[in-house]
Amino acid sequence: MPEALSPREVSRTLLERIGEGRYSELAELYAEDAVVETVFEPVGPRRFEGRAVVEERFAAVAAGSPVELTPENVVVRETDDPEVVVAEWDYKVHHRVTGRTFEAANIQVLRVRDGLIVSSRDYHDHLALVMAGGHLPQLVRALEAGQREE
């Protein structure tokens, strides 16, 4: 049986696969009971539980995302907890529909146990992605609708 990847290696593998568009291979990096939190997600759920749910999300991205993501300036920092790494990087984003190319900042805090991601707190620049796609009016309407429902 091969040795499990270190948290640093898992983080780098995740970003490499995203950059190569290998979304169908991402869920295998997550534990069965993994929890993913997309902290700055402006609309929609911010917490996802379980590998199956993570796999569904990656499949949806693969099927319908208009963006190509290239990780750049990647720095992975180890912490005093051997299971936890903090990754910082920029995505060079190419929006296939609008033709826009821009950078979006990211930070991810991963807890990796036995070579699998058990938790992830993701801080992505969702607003940059919304702006590049020309979807700011829809985002504003969704946010307003959500505020009225509370």
Summarize the structure.
By secondary structure, the protein is α+β, with helices and mostly antiparallel strands.
Alpha carbon gyration radius:
16 Å
Overall outline: globular
Tell me roughly what share of residues is in helical segments. 25-40%
Query: What series of H and E elements makes up the topology?
Result: HEEHEEEEHH
Structural class assignment: alpha+beta
Low-pLDDT residue intervals, each spanning 5 or more residues: none
Number of strands: 6
Whole-Å distance between the termini? 51 Å
Summarize the biggest pleated sheet: 6 strands, mixed
Percent strand equals: 35-45%
Number of alpha- plus pi-helical segments: 4
Strand order of the largest sheet: 2-1-6-5-4-3
Mean pLDDT: 89
